[in-house]
Design goal:
The complex is a heterodimer of chains A (about 230) and B (about 400).
Chain A (H helix, E strand, L loop, with lengths): L4 E12 L2 E13 L4 E5 L6 H8 L7 E6 L2 E2 L5 H11 E4 L11 H12 L3 H14 L15 H13 L5 E5 L7 H16 L3 E6 L2 H4 L4 E6 L2 E5 L5
Parallel strand pairs in A: 3-8, 3-9, 6-7, 7-8
Antiparallel strand pairs in A: 1-2, 1-4, 4-5, 9-10
Chain B lengths: L2 H14 L1 H38 L4 E6 L19 H9 L6 E16 L2 E10 L3 H4 L4 E4 L4 H6 L3 E4 L1 H7 L10 E4 L2 E9 L12 E5 H9 L6 E6 L5 H15 L10 E5 H44 L1 H9 L4 H37 L8 H27 L3 H6 L2
Parallel strand pairs in B: 3-8, 5-7
Antiparallel strand pairs in B: 1-9, 1-10, 2-3, 2-6, 2-9, 4-7, 5-8, 6-7
Helix pairs in contact in B: 1-11, 2-9, 2-11, 2-12, 9-12, 11-12
Classes of the chains: A alpha/beta (about 230), B alpha+beta (about 400).
């Protein structure tokens, strides 16, 4: 079976002035469809860099990355944009919603870029928001929502184009513990429905909710629990 | 992504950031509006001056005593006594002057005039019959100075509208009353119609027969100017030539450079004044150019700040799958919508302000198409370039760099 995500020998070097920083060195792993993986590590370990590369938000210095059978190595900007749009749903720590724009329009945004017709777009956005428990906040803008609610809008948005994987970067980092657990419940539910989820976190109790934990330290994988069944 | 959807998205962004939109549009409105109104003001003033000069009589040729060249010992034209009433009569009589229509002579000086206890110092102009028609002066009440008055050197006077206000306090009908000019008693036979604001106003002058001025008041035989009208506008130059040769002959002068008179046309005056008002217009255009530059920098500033501020937004859009072209198109469409709205409102404001200014100042309303196209062109160009270029640059960033941007 071809893995959904195939990372081979990824290295990322940042050239900040005269000193080159090696954020990732020779990282390799595979993730199958339907997995719920947590990538953990202290800050500065390189887990965020890994997440950016997995999300095609940044390109590795060397190594191969194949997502859903497509090698992104030699892709141009527009092809990468297409991958981000169709294959990946993002959930950021800082939510990254468009401010002063309603929840439903935020959820619609990736669907606009995917070329989904307007009526279908709104219908789908509405259903997604209802499924994350925001059926009564469709037309609120982010500054009228709590942190937990904003993150739920972001999760709804990440599901909009039915991507192959959901990439969540410290999704509970800005939230209180009760809200964090609610967000994790949503991820659990999504995973049960068959979605592949990659979660980046430094909190152990959050990571425990995942079915597989990859630990990173100083840009290298130090432990991989493998698929737990 | 279809263009229509991009337009929809752009308008949504402009609507959600109302303050920013209003400020950018305001910059464009003021830039364009001020340029149009300033240039219009300049051109309207120039037009107005031209019209006033033409109201003096457009085919008019003026002969003044004294040469055009100021030699070492030659006196100013006011002192020269080289032009006589006889010259005017000869011009009128001559059958060689095929191009000339009417002739008038005048002697003008200042004198004290009084009615009962009121008195004033004003222009007293001795004239011949055709003077009023040549200067486009109309008689409102009574009659003008006739050839008969001139023949008999009668002591009659036609007074300007402004003089009435000074001398008569409204209750007396001035026609038939006697006024004193330098001690001599004159009978008022007419009142001229007001010409309003004019460069050389006839409203404050009084007019008496030329011969009366020469013989009775001053004891002189020269005139201060001879006015001649050409038959039509094309004949002004030939008429000036014919007049020149005739007068040289009459005065027994062989070399035209020694002429003891000078001939100017209204056209000459128009040219001189146009030069002066042209400088004024240039000045206003300069100020307009400065406001265009300032307005342009304002637009640049807001556009640059907007895009910088929105780098994060560009990052989000890219992360969600926006292609580079989609981003730049969106910003371009936004700039076009902004500058177009500002442009239209600016033109309306400019025209509105121009109409108000010209109306209150009594100037002719000439809206300059050049100024409109210049102002709109420059502002839109600046708005679009500075809306598009930073967005184009930001769209080239890796999405993660744009997302990290604070």
């Amino acid at each position: 079976m071809i893995p959904l995500i195939d990372v081979k020998g990824i290295t990322k070097i940042y050239n900040g002035g005269e000193i080159a920083t090696k954020a990732l060195s020779d990282v390799s792993f595979e993730i199958e469809k339907g997995e719920f993986v947590a990538i953990v590590g202290p800050s500065g370990s390189g887990k965020s860099t890994l997440m950016h590369i997995l999300g095609c938000l940044d390109i590795p210095t060397s190594g191969t990355y194949i997502i859903n059978g497509r090698n992104v190595e030699n892709m141009n900007d527009d092809e990468l944009a297409n991958i981000r749009n169709k294959e990946i749903g993002f959930v950021f720590q800082a939510y990254n919603l468009l401010s002063r724009t309603t929840s439903i329009k935020n959820v619609c945004l990736p669907m606009i870029y995917a070329g989904i017709p307007k009526t279908e777009r709104y219908e789908r956005a509405k259903n997604l928001l209802i499924s994350v428990g925001l059926g009564n906040k469709l037309f609120n803008s982010p500054n009228q929502l709590s942190g937990g609610e904003k993150q739920r809008v972001a999760i709804a948005r990440s599901m909009a184009t039915e991507p192959s994987i959901i990439l969540a970067d410290e999704p509970t980092g800005n939230l209180a513990s009760k809200q964090s657990m609610e967000i994790m419940d949503i991820f659990d539910e999504l995973n049960i429905k068959g979605n592949t989820i990659i979660l980046i976190t430094h909190e152990e109790n959050i990571a425990k909710r995942a079915k597989r934990i990859i630990s990173i330290m100083d840009g290298k994988i130090v432990n991989d629990t493998g698929r737990l069944n | 992504m279809k263009l229509l959807e991009i337009l929809e998205e752009s308008i949504l962004v402009l609507k959600t950031n109302r303050m920013r939109t209003v400020l950018s549009v305001l910059g464009i409105i003021i830039g364009i509006g001020s340029v149009i109104s300033l240039i219009t003001l300049g051109e309207a003033s120039q037009q107005s001056v031209k019209e006033r000069i033409q109201s003096l009589g457009s085919n008019l040729i003026t002969i003044s005593p004294g040469g055009t060249q100021s030699g070492f010992l030659r006196g100013g034209p006011d002192d020269a006594k080289t032009l006589k009433y006889n010259d005017a009569l000869e011009i009128e009589k001559s059958d060689r002057l095929t191009t000339v229509d009417k002739v008038a002579a005048s002697y003008s000086s200042r004198a004290q005039i009084s009615f009962q206890e009121n008195n004033m110092n004003t222009n007293v102009i001795g004239i011949t019959e055709n003077y009023f028609s040549l200067r486009n002066i109309e008689i409102e009440y009574g009659v003008g100075i006739t050839q008969k008055d001139i023949g008999t050197s009668s002591k009659v006077v036609v007074i300007g509208n402004g003089v009435i206000e000074e001398l008569f306090t409204g209750k007396v009908n001035p026609i038939g009353q006697g006024i004193r000019i330098d001690g001599n008693s004159f009978k008022i036979i007419g009142i001229t119609k007001s010409k309003g604001s004019e460069m050389v106003s006839s409203d404050d002058s009084v007019f008496i027969p030329l011969t009366t001025a020469q013989k009775v008041l001053y004891g002189i035989d020269h005139v201060t100017s001879i006015l001649v009208s050409a038959k039509n506008e094309e004949l002004i130059d030939p008429a000036m030539n014919q007049l020149g040769y005739l007068l040289l002959e009459l005065h027994g002068i062989k070399n035209p450079e020694d002429a003891d008179f000078s001939i100017t046309s209204q056209e000459d005056l128009l040219e001189t004044v146009s030069e002066i008002t042209g400088t004024f217009t240039t000045l206003l255009t300069g100020i307009a150019a400065i406001s265009l530059v300032v307005g342009g920098i304002g637009i640049m500033n807001i556009m640059l700040v907007t895009v910088t501020e929105r780098t994060r937004e560009i990052g989000i859009r890219k992360a969600l799958g926006a292609k580079r072209k989609t981003i730049t198109t969106q910003f371009l469409v936004e700039s076009i919508v902004l500058t177009l709205t500002g442009g239209v409102l600016g033109v309306l404001l400019g025209i509105g302000v121009s109409l108000i200014i010209t109306k209150t100042m009594g100037l002719p309303s000439v809206i300059s198409i050049t100024s409109i196209s210049l102002a709109v062109g420059v502002s839109c160009l600046i708005g679009i370039i500075f809306g598009w270029y930073p967005a184009h640059r930001a769209s080239k960033l890796q999405p993660i760099e744009a997302l990290r941007y604070e």
